[in-house]
Fold each of these.
Amino acid sequence: MNSEKSVNSQKKEKRSFIEEARRAQIIEAAIDVIADLGASQSSLAKIAERANISTSLILYHFKDKEELFNIVLGSISTEWKAAATAAMAQHTTISGKLRSYIETRIVYIGTRPKQSMAMINLLFMNRPSDNTQAYQTHEEGFEIEDIVRLLEEGQQNGEFKQFDTLHMTLMIRSIIDQFLGYSQTPEIDLEHYMKDLLEWFGILIAKKGKL
Amino acid sequence: MSNLSTIERKRRAQIIAATIETLADEGYVRTTLAKIADRAEVTAGLIPYHFKNKDELMRQTLGEILGGWHEHVEAMVNEEPTSTQKMAVYVMANFKYMQQRPLYFPALIEIVFNARDDKGVLLYRVPEDDPGIVLLERILIEGQENGEFRDFDTHSVAIAIRATIDQVLGQIPIWKEFNTKQYVQSLLNLYEKAIVKVPSEN
């Protein structure tokens, strides 16, 4: 993310329409290649080939592979977060907001399988030697704390039961994240699963037993 | 397997142990036969004698991780009398097994998310008939049949529970300050609330 900030601060204002379009084209090709081949096998040469441009053109727009991958992940997160934020804003109750959060996530996995697969490949594959996943933190665009706060609000206004909000957040996130891994498993019926999942969280979280 | 000599078996186990360590430390891509040989303190030429190539070594390493893990969990579960207890032991046994072998899960993740065939297709994508999910679903179905559990879709719930377990297993090496034990207890309470029938429902 730091690299994205530095590029944005240096270049963003100056980027022309053509530059933006070219960057978008490269990001899209990178998503395709990363989804198909995994992050470590995705070379700039392969991405260039997919985008029908030269490798040096990629390097004109992005410092290196790492910067490109960071921006790819950032763009997927941003897209999903925007969808979730819009859906959540439609609701006045915290239950409704939480339901939208879960729904948008699962729907995104179902409707954007390339992006989901690219995301999981990036999350699991680029790992520095200290045994942590490099992209762990910007996984979803939402911070753990955002969801913890949402659950706390629900408890304060009486919609939700009492439970450990951090633990519940981790549970929700891990169940959703697991589905990223199923994004290319055609035999999984996401819609059916989503319904069951919401029912389950309803029992666990909401006082009235339903989100 | 049965016609392997004791020395051969020992040697293979030694190479697989070194493979798990190298995978956990370096990741799949950087794990070479030379590095594994180094760690196992054998000459690199010895590995192809026991395992045809890297793919074959990875396949056997994955088999070693999954086989022992699943056998252990199933044996623990089978000792419990009620479905509610089977469920709790299933969760605990998964954590304990991996906690005692902190490199196993990172090594497993490296193989599952990186090993690909010539066309780039993942070789070990989570299969629908993952033995861990099959066992969990069997516990849930039994619990519904004997009246301990309420009515829900056993497959969805099995996948959801499995997801929370796998997530914690993946985080064990990372969450240094996080109290895993407390979280597992919290998960168990939540599962029970969602799954086990309360008396008033009868």
Note: Chain B has a mean pLDDT of 87.
Amino acid sequence: MTVFSFSFLLSAISLIFVLFAIYKKRLELKFSLFWIFSCIGMMVISLNHNLLDKISELLNVSYPPSLLFLSGFLFTLGVVFQLTQVITKLDKKLTRLTQEFSILEEKIKKRI
Amino acid sequence: MKQKILVIVPAFNEEQALPYTLEALKSELDNNIDILVINDGSSDNTGKVAEQKEFVNVIHLPFNMGIGAAMQTGYYYAFKNDYDIAVQFDADGQHPANQIKYLVNDIIENKADMVIGSRFIEKTEYRGSTNRRLGIYYFFLLLRILTGQSFTDPTSGFRAVNRNIISEFAKEYPSDYPEVEVLISLQKKGFFLKEKSVNMKSRQGGKSSITPIKSIYYMVKVTISIMMTAIVRGIK
């Protein structure tokens, strides 16, 4: 088994895992689009030796499979970045929710 | 008609100083001035101490959210309850209650959108540590380069704002170390900010929240956000 077929297999399993999680409602589709595209992208790159070879020639990479690791790493970074964005949004919402709650609580206490 | 004023006192673990601060504020109370304590998830008796004073309103945040979110709660409250002016007032007793009216005056007379109480316009009693003064001077220089305006005391938390800025803050307020950051963003949005000389004391109890590591984070974070605002909004 070469690193290419191994990488393809791994990406395919990941894709099935992600799709299963969405099906079981353990993962919101909104947040998992990037996962799906990452898996498919990795699968495409793993299958197309020529594509990978061409890109490595362009980038002067002497060992093409190392590009596979680079792309995997970049996809991971992308997912982490997306997560940070989601957390920021959630954080803002949580802040506003807590403020609304506390102000309301004060109002109710004053009436009693 | 008299303008409605809200004095916002954010308090995190200030059970010792808070009673004195609130008593000092009481002597300044008028029928158009209300006091609002924001108990920012304190683990001591800050909340109880504040509740004992029947002349203040108290909002209890269910957990510690930090000064930015706590202050914003106050501004949001002011916005919802139609206050014309909001004053930020520290719980630790450093700010002089008898100078609130002096600070607010320029807003009532429409001379400024925000008035900041500065310790450094005239020589006052205030003596901070050398490091603290260096930090303040650094922000003074940075803001002067980027805004063209001299803020002698950019970190001062003693400030008054009008209705327009209240609604601005209710929408958007930095989560931590907000004092310096809001100066540049407000100025770039076209608000008129002004400083007035104020005599502050040293803190009356409790501890400063700023440790050495935090102060490095403070400098870096605020510098980056000031730069970003300047780049987005254009350097004067």
Note: Chain A touches chain B at residues 95, 98-99, 101-103, 105-106, 110 (CB under 8 Å).
Amino acid sequence: MPTEPLPHTCTFCGCLCDDLVIRAEDGRVVEVLGACALGRSRLIGIETTPGAAPPCRVDGTEANAEKAVLAAARILSRSKAPLIVGLRQTTNEGTRQAVALADRIGAAIEVGDAATAWPRIAAMQRSGSIGATLGEVKARADVIVFWGCDPATTHPRHFERDSLVGRDGRRTIVMDSGETDTSRRADAFLAVDPDRELNLLLTLRALVREVPLDPHRVEAATGHPLSALLELAETLQGARYGTWFQGASAGRGPARLGEARRQAVTALVRDLAAKTRFVALGPGEAGNAHGAEGVLAWQTGFAPGADLGPGFPESWPGDSSAADRLARGLFDAVLVIGGPAPAIPDGKPWIFLGDPEDEAFARATVSLPAGEPGIDDSGTFTRVDGVSLPVRALRPARTPGAGEWLSRVNAAIERASP
Amino acid sequence: MSSLLIKGGRIVDPANGVDGTADVWIRDGSVVAPPADPDARADRTIDARGYVVMPGGVDVHSHVAGSKVNAARIMRPEERRDAHAMRRWRDFRSGTIGSVPSSFATGYLYAGLGYTTAVDAAIPPLGARAAHAEFGDVPMIDKAMLVLMGNNHLVMEAVKSKDRAAVERTVAWLLESTRGFGVKAVNPGGVEQWKQGGARIAGWDDPVDGFDVSPREIVQALAEAVDALGLPHPLHLHGLNLGIAGNWETTLDGMKALEGRRVHMAHVQFHSYGGSPDAPADFGAQVGPLAEFVNTHPGITVDVGQVMFGDTTSTTADGPTGHYLANLTGRKWYNHDVEQEDGCGVSPIEYRDRNFVHAIQWAAGLEWFLRVDDPWRVALSTDHPNGASFRAYPDVIALLMDRNFRNETLARLPEKARERTGLKDLTREYTLSEIAVVTRAGPARILGLTHKGHLGPGADGDVTIYAPDDDRRRMFALPRWVVKGGEVVVDDGELRAASIGRSLFADVGVDPAARATLSARLGEAASFHPANFGLRLEDLCDPLGVGTGRRP
């Protein structure tokens, strides 16, 4: 194994750049070689020396770890309808503990952003998905579409690391509601009315399937002349290895159509894949929601949420969602793992396990300070394309990571149960 | 540590030539010779009089972890709702079943069938980190993974150089980095060619674009490297043209291409079809000539990949086959290309007994079991979940042991299908001892796991105790006791203890200079830092290295 210092993995955006070199002087990070502006601004200045553990909180006052773990265990073991939410920035190891806890207490558990994750998974469950690792895109793609996403802004190193925009004669097409930093670097830009995204996707699919279309109806439905869309369809079909990048909602249009849009993209890509190679994927959500989904799926069979209340995992879209139960008041206790924490009505006990600087830390009934992955905690994160990478702490841990806290809470509940 | 005595059972231990009444002593997790003192007592004694005692089952080819298995879970909620669940109970975790059970359920269900070891047969190098993590949540059984190398860019570059040592170094480095147990090739060269969008590879001498190698050269080089490194398990080969009419000739050519080198032919049933792609009506089983070749070539072993009728999920590292199958059924399709090596295709499939092709596939699998003379060279598998779930193993065993049961099923099949297989003429019935061979002793020997698949001193204390029953399905579906590493994990038919099981890997040595060179080469093309590729032992759950280099 290499003797040189291991590279640092940045968890700020979905790129999960794992090739950074941290320079520390006088107990602080002073430079991050290889990082983008977003990563640098997050990491520079972080203290790298050992420090005091931030205190836990119980009922608004500071408490020691033992007392706080017992208080959390008490809330969860008394609960008849517990929820576990968050897990956007938790290591896979931490999520394994979270699902174990959910299984023990019969919680409804949900990972990541429910509003975008459920439609994405539901579309996959209806149509499948056709994707690749980012390295395949880097090595093979010759036509790249950015659909309703702007990685130049949100994923600064995406072009350099993954899609290699502007290199090797790659052709880049941006379809979005307006010009973006990404579109300004692309070979072609097509303005897409967010309310007519689905029409455009279905029209492109019809053209790829060589269905004769009426030019007037096409223009009315999409806002674009048939000739322009034909040319676009030709470009897509002419790819040797096409790649369709889309954001978390598969477009900018109404959220309620997110699932339909994603299914339409999958169907279009499947039709293109009948003629050439074509894949679709996202540039990746920030943090580790993809890893958490994977862990939840392997342990329960379901993603992005499962209700373990019945004593076994169930997952019914619209019914098993923890976020939905939170909104409808169908719970009596909540464990929030990592911010941002949702609004929780007064009178219902809840636990926050995460950054002591997060506003939720002062708000929760019980707060446990979890070391952040990549700073105090080490473990594994999984990229949007399923590639799992080590995330390493950059200083001696000041406080345990979420996995360690969850394992303590789990053990306390086990000790207390008859 | 504790001791266990399994007293007075009918020991069926074909590896040691035993079929008769005896005692089995287990101490500190391993089988030991009976103590000299006739009055010696164990901490626990199981009265096995009247029961059948076998080593724990060993699955040489299954898909239990990794990204395609998990994609199959996520994509198919419809088969894991309602009653298809395992409840949380004591220290046992809850889970769901379907064709691809959740991780804890996978371990419990395998152990519940008396299996104590399962090998995942297709992990891309880049997927090893996730798959090992998942192994940590598959309890009760020992796990190992075969690492995909048949379309690996660095392997193909080494093959092209015609430098045997370079191939060996690359294989060793990939195995060490992934903590893999063995080497797998899937549609060698053909997946890479498909990913490039090139002309389909259909024969062993078709060139792989950009690499200037052929499937023949790839498998020869890999098989040689496996033997030179002294890996316990031979090259594990999923050949060309899986599932395609007329593929039996390609399969025969593939076995010949190895030119006498050791090879294990995976899910060989899927590679044994007559007819031609242009004339689907001519489809048929062509097991006879292939089995005859195996019978006369001792270096070749197979697992069957038995198809059983019902709903399941096709999950393959063979991307083009996954694409073909999804288009054939028109059902949902998950595809995921993985950089530098394969990827996967996942799609639901229902095998129906009224379907001409499916009926022939079912019969072809059974033909394989019945036509290979030496049961040590044919392992029982359904290629879980591709042909069926591993949960169907007791049904497969019943079909092998009972000709009437076979013929009853055969009678239900389309007449045209019955005529296109030789199954109706095969009267052989497996003995209990032969079942012990194809479900544990044989697979353990094929894997080169000398501490598994038998009950002699030094063997793992993995034992399954069945109540004899004329209903073979019931007998093998519900073992009375299962012992894992000396611990009674199924006691009186109920799961009792959820030990985690070990992660087996091949302990290969890699020259540090070769490691540095290959790592740098990987870094040139990869989407990740090469320092993050290799796994440390701490990344494995209860790792156990298996020695290499002992073979000539």
Note: The first helix of chain A runs from residue 37 to 43.
